[in-house]
Every structure is written in structure tokens, then in C-alpha cells.
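Anyone up for a design puzzle?
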């Protein structure tokens, strides 16, 4: 059977987590999470339209409860997020702590499988790791440098001792050029008493990849005697600017606008 939805997925994942905890009573919550994420199967490769899927759409993959339950290699963090970067902030490092919870020494082989082609590969400071029972080791991952603006994803693969694990990664590089001014309140109309605050509105300025553009000038406007207060003149680190709206002293229709560079207006 095929079904979808978080309300359907959540209890199934919770049941798998219970199985992992039952098999490994000493596992921490982070280790249970690693077992679920890093053993996920890769048999879903396209979406409903036939287009290839990457971690932005599929996450780590599809739950494999049996593999998760029998997993003895845990990884912290279970996923790698380098965040929103600029070309000037590349490269950026993240460290993976890999632990052997089993009773035997394991030798692991590490590699990178990029979902994007081009100059945005993630590299590792080592490709093999030998861990005794109960031992842990660190591997440093380095985001690509230099990278053109865009979204880059893939997985660090870890093989050995019967284990086949994947740590999905993602980083994005902004071009810093305003492309869209979005209302965070959706298409809206506000009811308010004349001369009294009708509440606040928030807008987000993003580039062509949907990444926030910070430090961009925002100008506000009002008609018919409406008043804009506490207005942000530039977008914050998340590309957001807010303002309070107050209708004029007489009943009527009032319009408020926000404008950004590149002739963007809402």
C-alpha cells in the first residue's frame, strides 16, 4: 500500500525508534536518530514527475527499520548542514563524530556522493577510519570552494563491517541579488479602528534561490493619512523587514506598501 502525510509517517518512525531503543537500551536519543537517518534506503530516486530527487526533497531516504535496529555505527551529527554561505565565507568545515557501539573492531571507508555536478564538492580529511569496540573517531568535512551561487547537496557515505551508511549534507550559496519580496503574512487585508494600530506586517527579501538578502534598503508607503511606525529601513540577517500599520483618523480604505531594490514592491 502507498500512503503519505506526516500524520502517517510519524507513528511509523516512532515505532522504528522504539525498536532501535529496545535493541540498544544504552543508545542516547541522538544515537537512535542516527540509526534511523543514516541507514535509510536509497530506493526512491525520482519524484512523482520522474525528476531526480536530492536531500532537499527526500531527506536521508526511506526508513529501513531492520537496518536501523541492527546498526552498530552511530554518527553525530546525523546530518551535515553548512548553512547559507557566501562565496567569501567558503570553505566551511563541519566535524562528524563516528562511534562503534559493537563488540568488534571495524574499518570504515568514507566517500562523498554529490547530488550536484560542478565545483561544489564536499571533501573529507580522511577516507578510512578504524575503530575498536566502543571507540569513536572524528572526520572533518569541508564544503566546496569556490562555489557559484546555488544549492548543493549530497551525502557522505560510510561503508564497512556490513554497514552501509549515508550522512546527507546541504549548503547554499546566495548571490545577494534581490529577486522576490514575499509577504510573510500571505495576501492580506487588515481590519482596524480609525487612528488605532491595526498590527504589524513582515516581508522577506530573497534571491533567485530563495535565500535571504540582508542589509537591503526597504521603503514604506501609506495612503489617505495612514501611518507606518517602527519600520525597519533595511532587512535583517534573515532578509526580513517589519512595520506597524495604523489607519487614518477616518473610516475608509487604506493601502500600505513595501518596496525593495530591483523595483520590487508589495
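Challenge accepted. My sequence:
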Amino acid at each position: 500500500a502507498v500512503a503519505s502525510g506526516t500524520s502517517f509517517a510519524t507513528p511509523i518512525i516512532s515505532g522504528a525508534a522504539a525498536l532501535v531503543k529496545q535493541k540498544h537500551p544504552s543508545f542516547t536519543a541522538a544515537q537512535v536518530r542516527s540509526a534511523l537517518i543514516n541507514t535509510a534506503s536509497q530506493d526512491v530516486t525520482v519524484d512523482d514527475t520522474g525528476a531526480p530527487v536530492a536531500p532537499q526533497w527526500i531527506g536521508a531516504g526511506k526508513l529501513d527499520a531492520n537496518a536501523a535496529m541492527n546498526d552498530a555505527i552511530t554518527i553525530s551529527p546525523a546530518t551535515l548542514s553548512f548553512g547559507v554561505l557566501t562565496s567569501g565565507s567558503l570553505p566551511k568545515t563541519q566535524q562528524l563524530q563516528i562511534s562503534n557501539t559493537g563488540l568488534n573492531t571495524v574499518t570504515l571507508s568514507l566517500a562523498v556522493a554529490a547530488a550536484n555536478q560542478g565545483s561544489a564538492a564536499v571533501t573529507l580529511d580522511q577516507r578510512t577510519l578504524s575503530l575498536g569496540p566502543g571507540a569513536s573517531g572524528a572526520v572533518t568535512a569541508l564544503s566546496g570552494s569556490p562555489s557559484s551561487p546555488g544549492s548543493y547537496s549530497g551525502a557522505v557515505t560510510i561503508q564497512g563491517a556490513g554497514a552501509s551508511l549515508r550522512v546527507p549534507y546541504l549548503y547554499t550559496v546566495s548571490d545577494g541579488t534581490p529577486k522576490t519580496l514575499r509577504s510573510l503574512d500571505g495576501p492580506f487585508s487588515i481590519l482596524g479602528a480609525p487612528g488605532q494600530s491595526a498590527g504589524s506586517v513582515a516581508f522577506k527579501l530573497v534571491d533567485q534561490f530563495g535565500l535571504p538578502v540582508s542589509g537591503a534598503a526597504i521603503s514604506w508607503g501609506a495612503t489617505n493619512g495612514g501611518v507606518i511606525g517602527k519600520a525597519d529601513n533595511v532587512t535583517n540577517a534573515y532578509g526580513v523587514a517589519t512595520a506597524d500599520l495604523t489607519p487614518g483618523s477616518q473610516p475608509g480604505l487604506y493601502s500600505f506598501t513595501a518596496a525593495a531594490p530591483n523595483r520590487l514592491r508589495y
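A detail worth pointing out: The mean pLDDT is 89.
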